Automatic annotation (TrEMBL):
<dbReference type="InterPro" id="IPR050911">
    <property type="entry name" value="DRAM/TMEM150_Autophagy_Mod"/>
</dbReference>
<feature type="transmembrane region" description="Helical">
    <location>
        <begin position="160"/>
        <end position="182"/>
    </location>
</feature>
<feature type="region of interest" description="Disordered">
    <location>
        <begin position="1"/>
        <end position="22"/>
    </location>
</feature>
<feature type="transmembrane region" description="Helical">
    <location>
        <begin position="225"/>
        <end position="249"/>
    </location>
</feature>
<keyword id="KW-0472">Membrane</keyword>
<protein>
    <submittedName>
        <fullName>Protein sfk1</fullName>
    </submittedName>
</protein>
<feature type="domain" description="CWH43-like N-terminal">
    <location>
        <begin position="68"/>
        <end position="283"/>
    </location>
</feature>
<dbReference type="GO" id="GO:0012505">
    <property type="term" value="C:endomembrane system"/>
</dbReference>
<dbReference type="GO" id="GO:0005886">
    <property type="term" value="C:plasma membrane"/>
</dbReference>
<keyword id="KW-1133">Transmembrane helix</keyword>
<feature type="transmembrane region" description="Helical">
    <location>
        <begin position="68"/>
        <end position="92"/>
    </location>
</feature>
<keyword id="KW-0812">Transmembrane</keyword>
<feature type="transmembrane region" description="Helical">
    <location>
        <begin position="122"/>
        <end position="139"/>
    </location>
</feature>
<dbReference type="Pfam" id="PF10277">
    <property type="entry name" value="Frag1"/>
</dbReference>
<feature type="transmembrane region" description="Helical">
    <location>
        <begin position="194"/>
        <end position="213"/>
    </location>
</feature>
<feature type="transmembrane region" description="Helical">
    <location>
        <begin position="255"/>
        <end position="278"/>
    </location>
</feature>
<dbReference type="InterPro" id="IPR019402">
    <property type="entry name" value="CWH43_N"/>
</dbReference>
Length: 311
């Protein structure tokens, strides 16, 4: 009779005999595992706990980490994978083919040249998926700040700046999707117009969101992710602005090979801008609990000892 009673292990967690059915909630046992383990290996005294496996421990740990920051990761990987696939296809598979859409004496293909023919399905799909997850990153940032999961906007000016960044990001989204659909071979003028929407839209969006983070960084100097994100985006703005101006100048002067190289560089740099939103969204993994969240604007600020104090 005594052997069937619930026993207590040396580490203070409820346990049951090897063949007895568990009498406590699984969450309690998992809490004990997390409390008394390092990394993902169970201590010997915990291995007899029923239904506690390495896979279970790993999955619970993954759930604690995976959050909104995966949106920019997916977006950036999709964009980078698409670009590498198109570039390697043109260099290796086609042996640097000169497409009908290329203007003499051009020998280096633009991204749009490669994406106007056999790889058009990849080009369109890649642009759509990239923009979907990038826009999800934008909207997640706003929602998390509204819910107190990230440092909230405390002034109308900050909200206006964020709103403008969203508007121009949507303009860039429309431009990128449409330029992939209206290719440079069949719809040259429309393609150039949407290229302008894409480059101008995302560049202006970056300027406004950078401005917003600069203001947030002054109000929350202890949250280092804001300063990091500000500087990353500022570098992106300066680099892309210089490259974009050089690209336009080369195009107007009909230096097409140089312009094509600049276009590829601009596109690859854009990947790092997308990934910079991981820095913005990462702190939200530590504010799942309501007690760890920021107070709403107008209420008292959290003390410096808050779990968010060093983001």
């Amino acid at each position: 009779m005594t052997s069937e009673l619930l026993r207590t292990s040396k580490v203070g967690c409820p346990t049951t005999p090897d063949r007895a059915r568990p009498t406590r909630d699984t969450k309690l046992r998992l809490h004990c595992v997390f409390k008394h383990t390092t990394s993902f290996s169970l201590k010997p005294e915990l291995r007899h706990l029923p239904h506690i496996t390495f896979a279970t421990t790993l999955s619970i740990a993954a759930m604690r980490v995976i959050s909104y920051w995966v949106f920019p990761i997916i977006s950036g990987l999709m964009w980078l994978g698409m670009l590498l696939g198109m570039l390697l296809y043109w260099i290796i598979d086609t042996n640097r083919e000169v497409y009908p859409s290329m203007s003499p004496p051009q020998t280096i293909a633009y991204i749009s040249d490669v994406g106007a023919y056999r790889l058009k399905p990849l080009f369109v799909t890649g642009c759509v998926i990239t923009t979907i997850f990038l826009d999800l990153s934008f909207f997640s940032d706003r929602w998390l700040r509204h819910k107190g999961r990230l440092a909230p906007n405390t002034s109308v000016g900050e909200k206006v700046l964020f709103g403008l960044s969203i508007v121009f990001a949507i303009l860039g989204t429309v431009g990128l999707i449409c330029l992939s659909i209206f290719d440079t071979y069949r719809h040259k003028r429309l393609h150039l117009l949407f290229l302008l929407f894409f480059m101008g839209g995302y560049l202006l969006s970056a300027i406004f969101i950078c401005w917003e983070y600069q203001r947030l960084g002054k109000k929350y100097p202890q949250h280092h992710s804001l300063a990091a994100s500000f500087w990353i985006k500022l570098v992106f703005i300066l680099v892309e602005l210089v490259l974009a101006i050089a690209f336009v100048v080369c195009n107007f002067r009909e230096i097409y090979n140089a312009a094509a190289i600049l276009e590829w560089i601009v596109a690859f740099v854009f990947s790092f801008y997308i990934w910079s939103f991981m820095v913005d969204l990462w702190p939200a993994i530590r504010t799942r609990d309501k007690a760890a969240r920021f107070s709403k604007p107008g209420m008292a600020e959290w003390s410096s000892g808050s779990p968010n104090a060093h983001f």
